[in-house]
Specification:
This protein is 49% helix and 16% strand. The chain is α/β, with parallel strands linked by helices. The protein has a domain at 64-200: Rossmann fold (3-Layer(aba) Sandwich). Helix 3 links the parallel strand 3 and strand 4 (102-106). It is globular. The chain crosses the membrane at residues 25-44. It is a single-pass membrane protein.
Length: 219
Protein backbone atom coordinates (compact mmCIF):
# COMPACT_ATOMS: atom_id res chain seq x y z
CA UNK A 1 0.00 0.00 0.00
CA UNK A 2 2.76 2.44 0.88
CA UNK A 3 4.63 1.50 -2.34
CA UNK A 4 1.50 2.04 -4.42
CA UNK A 5 0.89 5.39 -2.84
CA UNK A 6 4.52 6.38 -3.47
CA UNK A 7 4.28 5.34 -7.14
CA UNK A 8 1.01 7.16 -7.49
CA UNK A 9 2.66 10.28 -6.15
CA UNK A 10 5.77 9.89 -8.37
CA UNK A 11 3.95 9.36 -11.69
CA UNK A 12 2.21 12.75 -11.82
CA UNK A 13 5.47 14.42 -10.90
CA UNK A 14 7.29 12.67 -13.78
CA UNK A 15 4.55 13.56 -16.21
CA UNK A 16 4.65 17.11 -14.91
CA UNK A 17 8.40 17.26 -15.44
CA UNK A 18 8.01 15.91 -18.97
CA UNK A 19 5.33 18.46 -19.67
CA UNK A 20 7.58 21.17 -18.31
CA UNK A 21 10.45 19.98 -20.50
CA UNK A 22 8.18 19.95 -23.55
CA UNK A 23 7.05 23.47 -22.72
CA UNK A 24 10.68 24.58 -22.41
CA UNK A 25 11.56 23.05 -25.77
CA UNK A 26 8.52 24.70 -27.29
CA UNK A 27 9.65 28.06 -25.99
CA UNK A 28 13.16 27.51 -27.30
CA UNK A 29 11.92 26.50 -30.77
CA UNK A 30 9.54 29.45 -30.86
CA UNK A 31 12.30 31.82 -29.82
CA UNK A 32 14.65 30.31 -32.41
CA UNK A 33 12.14 30.63 -35.24
CA UNK A 34 11.26 34.14 -34.12
CA UNK A 35 14.92 35.13 -33.98
CA UNK A 36 15.51 33.70 -37.46
CA UNK A 37 12.56 35.64 -38.86
CA UNK A 38 13.82 38.83 -37.24
CA UNK A 39 17.29 38.23 -38.68
CA UNK A 40 15.87 37.59 -42.15
CA UNK A 41 13.76 40.69 -41.89
CA UNK A 42 16.78 42.73 -40.84
CA UNK A 43 18.73 41.47 -43.85
CA UNK A 44 15.95 41.66 -46.41
CA UNK A 45 14.32 44.92 -45.38
CA UNK A 46 17.20 47.21 -46.45
CA UNK A 47 17.08 45.68 -49.94
CA UNK A 48 13.43 46.47 -50.52
CA UNK A 49 12.71 49.52 -48.37
CA UNK A 50 12.60 52.73 -50.43
CA UNK A 51 15.23 55.35 -49.77
CA UNK A 52 13.09 58.25 -48.60
CA UNK A 53 14.52 61.61 -49.54
CA UNK A 54 12.93 64.08 -51.95
CA UNK A 55 11.14 61.28 -53.77
CA UNK A 56 10.48 57.63 -53.04
CA UNK A 57 13.04 55.63 -55.04
CA UNK A 58 12.56 51.89 -54.43
CA UNK A 59 15.10 49.29 -55.40
CA UNK A 60 13.98 47.44 -58.53
CA UNK A 61 16.72 45.29 -60.09
CA UNK A 62 17.52 45.92 -63.75
CA UNK A 63 16.48 43.13 -66.09
CA UNK A 64 18.95 41.38 -68.40
CA UNK A 65 17.30 43.13 -71.37
CA UNK A 66 17.68 46.55 -69.73
CA UNK A 67 21.36 45.92 -69.10
CA UNK A 68 21.92 44.92 -72.72
CA UNK A 69 20.03 48.00 -73.93
CA UNK A 70 22.17 50.24 -71.73
CA UNK A 71 25.34 48.63 -73.05
CA UNK A 72 24.07 49.17 -76.59
CA UNK A 73 23.71 52.88 -75.86
CA UNK A 74 27.30 52.91 -74.56
CA UNK A 75 28.80 51.51 -77.75
CA UNK A 76 31.58 53.72 -79.14
CA UNK A 77 31.54 55.71 -75.91
CA UNK A 78 34.43 56.16 -73.50
CA UNK A 79 35.33 58.14 -70.42
CA UNK A 80 33.96 58.09 -66.91
CA UNK A 81 30.59 56.51 -66.16
CA UNK A 82 28.18 56.86 -63.26
CA UNK A 83 25.00 55.02 -62.35
CA UNK A 84 22.65 57.20 -60.28
CA UNK A 85 20.85 54.93 -57.85
CA UNK A 86 23.05 51.94 -58.61
CA UNK A 87 21.08 49.41 -56.55
CA UNK A 88 22.92 46.09 -56.37
CA UNK A 89 25.58 47.30 -58.80
CA UNK A 90 24.73 45.18 -61.82
CA UNK A 91 24.85 48.08 -64.33
CA UNK A 92 28.14 49.38 -62.94
CA UNK A 93 29.65 45.90 -63.06
CA UNK A 94 28.42 45.29 -66.62
CA UNK A 95 29.93 48.61 -67.75
CA UNK A 96 33.21 47.83 -66.00
CA UNK A 97 33.41 44.56 -67.91
CA UNK A 98 33.20 46.64 -71.10
CA UNK A 99 36.21 48.70 -70.05
CA UNK A 100 34.61 51.68 -68.31
CA UNK A 101 35.80 53.13 -65.06
CA UNK A 102 32.36 52.89 -63.51
CA UNK A 103 30.97 54.47 -60.35
CA UNK A 104 27.69 53.88 -58.56
CA UNK A 105 25.89 56.17 -56.12
CA UNK A 106 23.35 54.53 -53.85
CA UNK A 107 21.76 55.73 -50.63
CA UNK A 108 21.16 52.25 -49.20
CA UNK A 109 24.34 51.03 -47.45
CA UNK A 110 23.31 47.36 -47.64
CA UNK A 111 23.11 47.57 -51.43
CA UNK A 112 26.45 49.38 -51.64
CA UNK A 113 28.20 46.69 -49.59
CA UNK A 114 26.56 44.00 -51.68
CA UNK A 115 27.62 45.80 -54.89
CA UNK A 116 31.23 45.89 -53.71
CA UNK A 117 31.10 42.18 -52.98
CA UNK A 118 29.66 41.43 -56.44
CA UNK A 119 32.33 43.56 -58.12
CA UNK A 120 35.04 41.68 -56.21
CA UNK A 121 33.43 38.34 -57.05
CA UNK A 122 33.28 39.23 -60.76
CA UNK A 123 36.87 40.48 -60.80
CA UNK A 124 36.13 44.12 -61.67
CA UNK A 125 36.58 45.72 -58.25
CA UNK A 126 39.57 47.71 -59.51
CA UNK A 127 37.41 49.36 -62.19
CA UNK A 128 34.42 50.10 -59.97
CA UNK A 129 33.60 52.32 -57.03
CA UNK A 130 30.42 52.48 -55.00
CA UNK A 131 29.47 55.36 -52.74
CA UNK A 132 26.79 55.67 -50.08
CA UNK A 133 25.30 59.03 -50.94
CA UNK A 134 22.14 61.00 -51.60
CA UNK A 135 22.10 61.73 -55.34
CA UNK A 136 20.84 65.28 -54.71
CA UNK A 137 23.99 66.07 -52.74
CA UNK A 138 26.43 64.84 -55.39
CA UNK A 139 27.81 66.74 -58.37
CA UNK A 140 28.04 64.67 -61.56
CA UNK A 141 29.96 67.34 -63.47
CA UNK A 142 33.00 65.19 -64.28
CA UNK A 143 31.12 62.23 -65.77
CA UNK A 144 30.71 61.73 -69.52
CA UNK A 145 28.22 58.87 -69.30
CA UNK A 146 25.32 59.00 -66.85
CA UNK A 147 22.81 56.20 -66.30
CA UNK A 148 19.57 56.82 -64.46
CA UNK A 149 16.98 54.34 -63.17
CA UNK A 150 14.45 56.82 -61.85
CA UNK A 151 10.77 57.28 -61.17
CA UNK A 152 8.52 59.86 -62.86
CA UNK A 153 8.37 62.12 -59.78
CA UNK A 154 12.14 62.69 -59.76
CA UNK A 155 12.82 63.10 -63.49
CA UNK A 156 11.99 66.83 -63.89
CA UNK A 157 14.25 67.90 -61.04
CA UNK A 158 17.02 65.50 -62.07
CA UNK A 159 16.81 66.77 -65.64
CA UNK A 160 17.43 70.31 -64.40
CA UNK A 161 20.29 69.19 -62.15
CA UNK A 162 22.09 67.30 -64.92
CA UNK A 163 21.53 70.13 -67.40
CA UNK A 164 23.31 72.49 -65.02
CA UNK A 165 26.18 70.17 -64.10
CA UNK A 166 27.18 68.10 -67.12
CA UNK A 167 29.51 69.04 -69.95
CA UNK A 168 28.40 69.16 -73.58
CA UNK A 169 29.99 65.81 -74.42
CA UNK A 170 27.90 63.95 -71.84
CA UNK A 171 25.37 61.28 -72.68
CA UNK A 172 22.53 60.54 -70.27
CA UNK A 173 20.85 57.15 -70.49
CA UNK A 174 17.43 56.88 -68.86
CA UNK A 175 15.84 53.52 -68.10
CA UNK A 176 12.14 52.75 -67.55
CA UNK A 177 11.09 56.40 -67.64
CA UNK A 178 12.23 59.20 -70.02
CA UNK A 179 13.03 62.77 -69.08
CA UNK A 180 10.05 65.12 -69.46
CA UNK A 181 11.57 67.88 -71.63
CA UNK A 182 14.61 66.48 -73.41
CA UNK A 183 14.12 64.83 -76.79
CA UNK A 184 16.04 61.51 -76.94
CA UNK A 185 18.70 61.09 -79.60
CA UNK A 186 18.42 57.30 -79.49
CA UNK A 187 15.83 54.86 -78.19
CA UNK A 188 15.93 51.09 -77.90
CA UNK A 189 13.93 48.34 -76.25
CA UNK A 190 10.24 47.93 -75.51
CA UNK A 191 8.01 48.30 -72.45
CA UNK A 192 9.82 48.41 -69.13
CA UNK A 193 13.07 47.57 -70.93
CA UNK A 194 13.00 50.78 -73.00
CA UNK A 195 16.13 52.91 -72.78
CA UNK A 196 16.45 56.54 -73.91
CA UNK A 197 19.80 58.22 -74.67
CA UNK A 198 20.24 62.00 -74.59
CA UNK A 199 23.30 63.83 -75.92
CA UNK A 200 23.62 67.23 -74.30
CA UNK A 201 25.60 68.66 -77.22
CA UNK A 202 22.42 68.58 -79.29
CA UNK A 203 20.17 70.22 -76.74
CA UNK A 204 22.73 72.94 -75.97
CA UNK A 205 23.88 73.66 -79.52
CA UNK A 206 27.47 72.78 -78.67
CA UNK A 207 28.18 71.55 -82.20
CA UNK A 208 27.23 74.94 -83.64
CA UNK A 209 29.54 76.70 -81.19
CA UNK A 210 32.39 74.34 -82.00
CA UNK A 211 32.00 74.93 -85.76
CA UNK A 212 32.16 78.66 -85.17
CA UNK A 213 35.34 78.37 -83.07
CA UNK A 214 37.20 75.78 -85.19
CA UNK A 215 38.08 78.01 -88.22
CA UNK A 216 39.60 80.60 -85.89
CA UNK A 217 41.73 78.07 -84.05
CA UNK A 218 42.97 76.46 -87.28
CA UNK A 219 43.85 79.71 -89.05
Amino acid sequence: GAMSQALAKEIPREEGAGGSRRSSWGLLVTAGVGGTLVALYAVATPFVTPALRKVCLPFVPATAAQIQNVLKMLENRSGSLVDIGSGDGRIVIAAAKKGFQAVGYELNPWLVWYSRYRAWRDGVHQNTKFYISDLWKVSFSHYRNVIVFGVPQMMPQLEKKLEEELECNARIIACRFPFPCWIPDHTTGEGIDTVWAYDLKHSRGCETKRLEITPETES
